[in-house]
Amino acid sequence: MAKLAAGGIEVTALHNHLLWNQPFTMYMHVLGHGDPVKLAAALHAALAESKTPLSGAPAPPPIDLDTAAIDQALGAKGTNNGGV
């Protein structure tokens, strides 16, 4: 949180969604105004300090569903978003 504040990013909320979850997870909401490059650098520095993994997301799992038929019925192409 100190890194965010030093970088001009305001912490607007800090809370958890679930009780007794493992690993314990807190959610932080932030707000920043100004140069997007400076804000991104400050956010990156804060995430690195927290040991948050910064690697890309894994490939989504396959869906056992006829998504082509759903796309055709809806008239739009959907995407697999983490199995959803």
DSSP strand tally: 2
Task: Please give the order of strands in the largest beta sheet.
Answer: 1-2
Shape: elongated
What is the residue-mean pLDDT, rounded to a whole number?
Answer: 88
The gyration radius over C-alpha positions equals 19 Å
Unreliable residue stretches: none
Characterization of the model:
- The chain has 84 residues and is α+β, with helices and mostly antiparallel strands.
- The chain has one domain (2-74).
- Helix content is 32%, strand content 15%.
- The chain is built from three helices and two strands; from the N terminus they run H-E-E-H-H.
- It has helices at 2-6, 36-49, 67-74; strands at 9-15, 27-32.
- Strands 1-2 form a two-stranded antiparallel ribbon.
- The longest helix is centred in the middle third of the chain and has 14 residues, at 36-49.
- The protein is elongated.
- The two termini are 32 Å apart.
What is the topological layout?
Layout: H1 2-6, E1 9-15, E2 27-32, H2 36-49, H3 67-74
Antiparallel strand pairs: 1-2
Name the features:
single chain; 84 residues; alpha+beta; two-stranded antiparallel ribbon; 3 helices
Brief overview:
The protein has 84 residues and is an alpha+beta fold. Helices cover 32% and strands 15% of the residues.
